[in-house]
Amino acid sequence: MARILFLCLSLVASSLAFPSDPETFAEPSDGVNWALIVAGSNTWGNYRHQADACHAYQIVHKNGIPDERVVVMMYDDLAQNPQNPTPGIIINRPNGTDVYHGVVKDYTAEDVTPQNFLNILQGNAAAMSGIGSGKVIASGPNDHVFVNFVDHGAPGIVAFPAGGELHATDLNNAIQSMYQQQKYAKITLYFEACESGSMFENLLPSNINAFATTAANAEESSYACYFDAERETYLGDVYSVKWMEDSDVEDLTTWTLQQQFQIVKQETNTSHVMEYGDLSMGSLVVDEFQGSQNPSPKQKAKPYPRVPLDAVPAPDVPMAILQHRLTASKSTKERQGIVQEMSKLLELRSMVTDTVRKIVDLATDSSAQADRIVNTKKTKLQSHYCYKAVVRHFADNCFSLNTNDYPLRHLYVFVNMCEERVPVVRMTEAMDRVCGTQLAKFMKGIY
Asked: What pLDDT, in 10s, does the model give residues 103-115?
């Protein structure tokens, strides 16, 4: 691989907000590296997503991508959270080191939205003026771009803490637009979310120099891992910690994308790790995307000690946390309180299921059609316009999709109805009738 050596400071673009440290490192193919790292959730129960994102930042920073070419989007409600027993510190594995220190927080809180993500990815500095740091991926035709997204997902979408959902068609249209405008030479995308394969399956072309891997296929959950008893939450996600712990110890100047994919696929035995796009890019070495400044052999990190994954499907995380708390409880009063929380969670989940079933019953022509729609979970999404409209109406009028994974698990019914050509207006009118009750409005506030 042709490389040149140069001083990072000489490459600082005048439009970017922060200067780089004066580090010297190699870049890919006479271009430079850019990284966009996103945690699309908030709240303590979703600790693992921001922990993953912070760890990803530490990897690209350690490997020499300067901060002016790294953009981080994260809600940033963990480090100083009242539930954090180690204020100012976030960890990504049991007894792990602090991954929060030094993280650039370009966009936080309500600025972490899908539209901002798309503007940042496509280098739309004008749209981001006055928002957060204003930094964007200002990449050019010789540059390599690395995108890491971590959060909840459902068929054809991934969630954000504000501003709605990111739809697969919008993401893939943005990537194709970047290719047509020569805004990258190569791009890789690592996506951690339930059903994350649906963000690329049959959508990401194989001829635009784009390679994506996902934590799960288009139909299954991704998995949380590393429950921490002190913090009473999960510290990471299986796919994410597997690729990052691999990047921490490998020589990325010789380790290829395909080698990393294969080892992550092998060690993520909880879901099916997938790859999409230009699979020939698997022969490229990882340092062309995650940074090129590897530690010397004497400094190279030792493999992580094995610890139990304690992996659970992402939708089951809230209940699993309560179960861990129940096991560790020390008094009858505490146990009773936890059991009440568990009962309430089960009741709320049942209400979500019942609400969705009522919507389907009202929107369809027969009980047979309704049964088919509810009991079929493998229909491929093709009617993206229909689906986008009904998901937004569902999120606005029934259940918020950005704070809990469970309502997302029911979105497949809208895929099925769209594919059976149920009119959008029938679905939205059914939602208005079912979700217009006081109880449903109460539920929206919880989920």
From this structure: 999 999 999 999 9
